[in-house]
Amino acid sequence: MRMIKLFAVLSAVMVLFAGCRSIGVTGTTSEEWFQQNGSMTFRSSEISSDCCNFLLARQMNKLYDKDPESAVYCIYQDYRISHERRYLNILTELCYVAGTNAGGADRKIAFHAAAAYFAYQYLFNKNIRPDLPMPYEMDVFIVARYYNSALDTLVEYLNNKRLVFNSSYSLPAVAGLTLRFDAPLNELSCPVDKTTQVLSCYRFSAEGFYVYSYTPGIGVPLIVSFDNPLPMPPPFKVMPGRSQSATFFLRMGDAENGNIPARVELYNTMSSDTVSVENKTIPLSLDFTTPLAYDLRRPPLIDGFSYMFSADTPDNYGLFAIDRLEKNKIPLVFVHGLMSNPRTWAQMVNILLNDPDIRHNYQMWLFTYSTGNPVLYSAYLLRKSLQESKADFNTPEALANFNQMFIVSHSMGGLLAKTTIQNTGAQLKDKFLPAAVMAKKKLTPEQQQFVMNMLVFEQLDFVKGIVFMATPHQGADMATWTVVRWASSWISLPNYLKEHVYGLRRVLNPEMSADEADDVRVDTGLDNLAPENKMLKALADVPFTKTVPYFTICGNNDAAGVPGGTDGIVPYSSSHLNSARSELIVESGHSVQDNASAIEEVRKILLLHLRTIGRIK
């Protein structure tokens, strides 16, 4: 019974650390999506008064009601003679509405394929209108929505038929038209053979995010899924079963003898947010929230709670890139806190991706580790991973970007991050292994290297800034609670770590037996958070380099902007740094990284870094 109570209390502590907002998706339709997202002028199942008047004036209203395909064919023939641009507007709406009301999938796709073609001609054909229409014209707004929604039908059809990446196929449409598809343009990160499905974001409603990061434009935002891991160079780890944000655009030429040349174009929205049509730059529809929510509907690849207790799983630690490596961008590294995992950054990543300056200039990496491990060991793994990642930036231009790395850290993650801008010299080594004692002992080369890895480190010259969010630089009383001390005793540390620590003990204390050495407990990451912990205090005494700016964001449960108090886990006195470039105090619990004001502060800091180095004005 006592164990059950302790576990219940520990679970409550975990909620304080990780938050509990559920993120995922529910199904919807493109028609509902457009109605929910501001397109109140968009009609899907009934024609507008303009279309009604157009049909009445030509005495075709009854024909359209009885046989819409014949009516569309007749109007299209009139258009081929007159080339009046208004006809294309009418044809787009008539085809789209007829397709929505059609009985079968084949009939729907035939009408919507024609609607997409007529909309494309209306929007982009320079032979009909020499200059492209202005985006604030109401007719353009409506036709663009018909085009996008018709493409949504096409995406579903091509995905079901496994045709998205085919190089040659045809799709019959109404009015005697046929779309002839050439090889697609594929700018996605994932290879074609690893792609499992291409889903329209219009078919899902994201839940659990504070902000819907969506930019209106042309094309259909996509969720592109692939089960096989995306190949990544070491030291980066891969995320199996992940998805990518993309946009689907259909480029079409003029119809000749009923044949329409068509090409599917798939754009990676991390690197492309416009498309060139007739020498004009057109904004693409971008959706960063729905693909992220779609991925997060599944259980996490790494569960921070269980991983804390099973620390002896070295394959789980490391860097995860949310997209392919882009050597023209600056690495932005997120380091999570206690009992957490990379998902803790979902709200922040979702909002930051919607800022084009950040999206165009930063690439986001997520570092994960077992928070049960000693802080100095986890910090070594972080520094090791970052140093190894440098090998992939092997040109002067790429290295210049790598050398502007920025780190955003939360809670315990800040203790790891700050070791990237500290120079310990012999300070930590002498604290734990005095030189007078070490001079009399003979360590193996492996033991010497272990000591250097843990206790001697220098500033990483490529790290140019850090944000500390609710970081317990002076510890947290939570670590002294009985339930936390009990939980710490259940943590299984890596064999590599224990073997070296016990080996050092036997060297330093030769009179101690192997069993006695092994019985001496090694501090865990939980232990390291206690205010009186020897390691924590020693690390706090190591000064930061004066050449790298760092910023603090602290939580106060009671009020924003008021120094003092606590976020429920870390008191202000612990998260505050006198020498920080700036400090923001938000009204928040410990999950400061989810706070809207804190996220906005991080965005401003990242933009400041870009201005400082001349990447943006």
Describe it for me?
The chain is α/β, with parallel strands linked by helices. It has two domains: 24-292, no CATH class; 302-612, 3-Layer(aba) Sandwich (Rossmann fold), CATH 3.40.50.1820. Helix content is 40%, strand content 18%. The strands form five sheets. The protein has an eight-stranded mixed beta sheet with strand order 9-15-17-16-18-19-20-21, sandwiched between helices. Strands 2, 3, 4, 5, 8, 10 and 11 form a seven-stranded mixed beta sheet that branches. Strand 10 (243-252) and strand 11 (259-268) form a beta hairpin. It is elongated and about 105 Å long. Mean pLDDT is 87; it is low at 1-9 and 14-20.
Index terms:
single chain, 617 residues, Rossmann fold, 2 domains, seven-stranded mixed beta sheet, 24 helices
Number of strands: 21
Biggest β-sheet description: 8 strands, mixed
CATH superfamily of the largest domain: Alpha/Beta hydrolase fold, catalytic domain
Overall pLDDT metric? 87
Rg over CA atoms, rounded to whole Å, is: 30 Å
Instruction: Say what the CATH topology of the largest domain is.
Output: Rossmann fold
Question: Rough shape?
Answer: elongated
Segments where pLDDT lies below 50 for 5+ residues? 1-9, 14-20
Second-tier CATH architecture of the largest domain: 3-Layer(aba) Sandwich
Provide the domain count.
Answer: 2
Question: How many angstroms does the end-to-end distance come to?
Answer: 62 Å
Strand % is 15-25%
Query: Which structural class do the helices and strands define?
Result: alpha/beta
